[in-house]
Design a protein that fits this description.
- The protein has three domains: 2-117, no CATH class; 152-221; 228-388, Heat Shock Protein 90 (2-Layer Sandwich), CATH 3.30.565.
- The chain is α+β, with helices and mostly antiparallel strands.
- 62% of the residues lie in helices and 15% in strands.
- The chain contains nine helices and seven strands.
- Helix 3 (135-184) runs antiparallel to helix 4 and helix 7 (267-283) packs antiparallel against helix 9.
């Protein structure tokens, strides 16, 4: 940057000196002309006669000769002085350019040093560049945003690996034990071998369901790659129809009131969010209980609320339900009724869509889960309330 400053300044300085020299030369020539005319007038005033043409001419020749010599000497001194001043200015330009470039580039050096020290082990650190709101601070804030996204991605990967290894260890060892016991039996029959294989197949289905849930959880934690309009009313209606047999098996009363609304987002993730809410409301409900689904679209937000009956949930346990592999009762962690990922996936999908998730325990038992999409992410369509038969 210092060299660039010098290259930009030097031609301008040379042009300035040339223009100044030209102006000075023109003014000196004009002064010489005035002196010559004045001397001829002086000769005429003394003699009272017009000066002879030759005499005036010789005088005009003689006088300008002396003046031109003086002009040449003065111009040479002016050029020497200008060159000395130009060299001094260039030296000052180099010094000031070096200081200015160092001060301007100091934030870049700080950013470079800090960025080199950040790795996957300390992604929580940030540049936190202070100063005026200029291009460098904007660059620092952009890098901080990138580091935040990298931290989220690395954290999601670590949680996925930890959760997957923790939850898959037991069923894999169970499958291995089943096969080892079957193969170690000297009196094994075809029926017993088929029974052992069927148990392994059933366990494999549970593992596939778990892996699918973990992949959905990791995908929602990573954020949205794209957004598209999603008909939320159609999604809720489809999910209710799919879960109708399981609700009928527990003799649940399902009441639904749905406004026509759509939100921008990932269609698969929104479908999983709604499916998990309805599945949890049915799965963790008492026989003969009730499920209420409300979809309300207003000018400020679009809210989906799913309420169910069931066992009372202590208020201090609500936040724990949003963590992976957690259920209402701590002693039911290994229960085959669920994976403990339903509300954790709902929370991450809601966060990815900029929605607000509120989980409230009901006084008579059960939960009320509300997902509210903000006004800038919600698009209300024309139409009234669409009731869904229970």
């Amino acid at each position: 940057m210092t060299v660039l400053y010098c290259f930009l300044f030097f031609p301008l300085a040379v042009v300035l000196v040339a223009v100044t020299y030209t102006v000075v030369m023109l003014r000196r020539a004009e002064a010489i002309s005035r002196v010559a005319v004045s001397q001829c007038s002086h000769v005429q005033s003394i003699t009272g006669k017009p000066a002879p043409h030759g005499a005036c001419a010789s005088h005009q020749v003689g006088s300008p000769t002396v003046t031109i010599a003086q002009l040449t000497l003065g111009s040479r001194e002016f050029l020497v002085g200008s060159c000395i001043i130009l060299v001094a200015i260039m030296a000052a330009t180099v010094l000031l350019g070096w200081l200015a470039a160092g001060r301007v580039l100091r934030p870049l050096r700080v950013m470079t040093t800090t960025a080199r020290e950040i790795s996957e082990r300390n992604l929580h650190e940030r540049l936190a560049l202070a100063g005026p709101d200029d291009e460098l601070k904007d660059l620092g804030d952009t890098i901080d945003g990138l580091l935040a996204r990298l931290e989220t991605a690395f954290g999601s990967q670590r949680r996925f690996i930890a959760n997957a290894s923790h939850e898959l260890r037991t069923p894999l060892m169970l499958n291995q034990t089943l096969l080892q016991v079957a193969l170690a039996d000297p009196d094994i029959t075809l029926d017993s071998l088929r029974a052992a294989c069927q148990e392994v197949v059933d366990a494999g289905k549970d593992q596939a369901q778990l892996i699918d849930a973990l992949l959905t959880l990791a995908r929602s934690q990573r954020g949205l790659d794209h957004r598209e309009p999603v008909d939320l009313t159609a999604v809720v209606t489809e999910v209710l129809n799919v879960h109708e047999p399981s609700a009928a098996a527990k003799r649940l009363q399902v009441d639904a009131a749905l406004d026509h609304a759509s939100v921008p987002g990932d269609a698969r993730l929104i479908h999983r969010l709604v499916s998990n809410l309805v599945d949890n409301a049915i799965r963790y409900n008492s026989t003969g209980g009730r499920v209420e689904v409300r979809l309300a679209a207003t000018a400020t937000q679009t809210a989906l609320t799913v309420t169910n009956t069931g066992a009372p949930v202590p208020p201090d346990q609500v936040s724990r339900l949003l963590e992976p592999f957690q259920r209402a009762a701590p002693d039911q962690t290994a229960s085959p009724n669920g994976l403990g990922l339903g509300l954790a996936i709902v929370a991450d999908i809601a966060a990815a869509h900029g929605a607000n998730l509120v989980v409230r325990p009901q006084p008579e038992g059960g939960l009320a889960v509300a997902v509210s999409f903000p006004a800038d992410a919600a698009v209300r369509t024309q139409g009234g309330t669409q009731p869904t038969p229970s």
